[in-house]
Amino acid sequence: MIPSPSPQLQRELGVFGAIMMGLGSIIGTGVFVSIGIAAGIAGSAVILAVGIGALVAICNGLNSAQLAANHAVSGGTYEYGYKYLNPWLGFTAGWMFLVAKSASAATAALGFAGYLLNAFGVSNRNLLVAIALVAVTLFTVIILLGIKRSNTANIAIVSITLLTLGFFIIAGLPVLTTQGLTNLTPFFATPNQESINPITAILHASALMFVAYTGYGRIATLGEEVREPRKTIPKAIILTMIVTMLLYIVVAIVSVGTVGADTLSQAATSKAAPLEVAARSFAIPGSSQIIAIGAITAMLGVLLNLILGLSRVVLAMGRRGDLPRVFGRLNETGTTPFWAVIIVGIAIAFLVLIGNVKTTWSFSAFSVLIYYAITNLAALAIPSEGRLYPKAIAWLGLLACLFLAFWVEQQIWLTGLGLIIAGLIWHKIAQTVKNRN
């Protein structure tokens, strides 16, 4: 059943705005929290995991770019699945996106609160959760004001974040030089997990690090709001991925090389602030405070962009009737999907109550890998006249996503499969009700 025409969002983003939205979505939880989490799994080999995650993400980024260029509407792979595959896979993509990115947004909010409290020397779980909830509420309100104000806030946030990461690299290089290879060897040792095979650890860490790159998909989900999407979206995604990959690899080398994988891991799990702890070893006074500022802005940037992207997928699902149709409505000025933003903010707030960054991040990893597996499958179905890149890239992305998805903890992927089944049952019920009406 083809949905009736719906009011369209205004196209207000150019290449620079789209790149900054991509950077704002990517550079945050991934670099400031997940490198520490992955270091606790793979040790110094987290550097290799960062590279593997980047290669898989680049394949997915190219496929997302050509899909968005051919079908530039809000909703990302949810819409691509409907157009190029079938309603069941389209719905599953949208459902997994909501699950994955709601968990990522909760991780970002908790990471923000963790860095903020750590900067003041405070360690209190209840306060951590309370501050995270305030952040979710604040940014939900900002996004309700529309894409222009969201973009302005994002550019300011990303600029501060990039400056502080540049400082982290420059200030950390002298310490790295002094330490030499002390903290980087043995390269394939797994911290406190002698029984774990190093290859298993690297694949597990790669699955977690892949998620750290997936903000580029936000550019695709904003396809309806980008000017000249066929030119703008591929260019913005490719440039965003190159900048992010180089930055992540250098930050991983500096952070692990200065304090070691064990210290990073402990800081990530107990304080959600690994880079701030690493910066304490720098000779420059106030280094940890500077990194804390950058982390705080980065987490807020990710939170802003995730709420933005999630609300656009809820909008698309509401338009089709896969979610209640009230979520498919725009405000009077046509600048924001009001009810979609509200429900996204509420969902993230509930996940914040878990209060554990490793759990929320791992859950996001499985869900987002399934989401991008469907993205690559849809890219295989693009007609030859609309194809920008070889089919081999789509095959590589598809196989890599399915392979990595099941290297997270067993209870995580079992829960994820259960949610997929629950979502498909809901979809069947929704379709039955819609057909009767």
TrEMBL record:
The keyword Membrane applies. It comes from the Bacteria. It is found in: Membrane. Pfam families: AA_permease. The chain crosses the membrane at residues 12-35, 41-62, 88-115, 127-147, 154-176, 196-216, 236-256, 290-315, 336-355, 361-381, 388-406, 412-430. It is a multi-pass membrane protein. The keyword Zinc-finger does not apply. Keywords: Membrane, Transmembrane, Transmembrane helix. Residues 17-406 form the Amino acid permease/ SLC12A domain. This is APC family permease.
